[in-house]
Amino acid sequence: ATVSEPAQKCCTENIQPFLTSILEELMGPVSSGFTEVRSLFDREVNEIIQDFHKSNDTAKLKENVDQLLSLPFNSVKMEPCYLKVNLLQELLQDLRSRFKVYHIDLVIQRTQNFMQELMENAVYTFEQLFSPSLQADSAKVATTIEKVKLRVLK
Length: 154
Description:
It comes from Serilophus lunatus. This is NIBAN protein. Belongs to the Niban family. This protein has one domain (about 5-154). About 85% of the residues lie in helices and about 0% in strands. The chain contains six helices and no strands. Helix 1 (about 5-55) packs antiparallel against helix 6.
């Protein structure tokens, strides 16, 4: 009871007025990282479509879709996504001094984990929606891939 009122006053005066601007600053790199995840997924599926147009080989298509499932665990391909979030390191340094924010690396790591999880969900959903279409007429497959990709990106 004796701590509640001073703590509430401190939060109201020293923290709450800055929360909106802090969130806006933090969301820049976070949004950029998630946009990069989306772009990476889009590029990878577009490569699958182009490869299928060239080869028209459904066995190769299945192999490419299987490789897509490993995309979230491909550190080389995911690295550009993760680098976008590393900008939080600089932003959070300022917060550390102003608001005593600790464990900056943990915030960045968790954000990167969420990015990987998002990619896992995207490739899994793509595979689940597209797999039944592998048996379809090859003329329809490329169109189906594009439709599934757009559905996942939505």
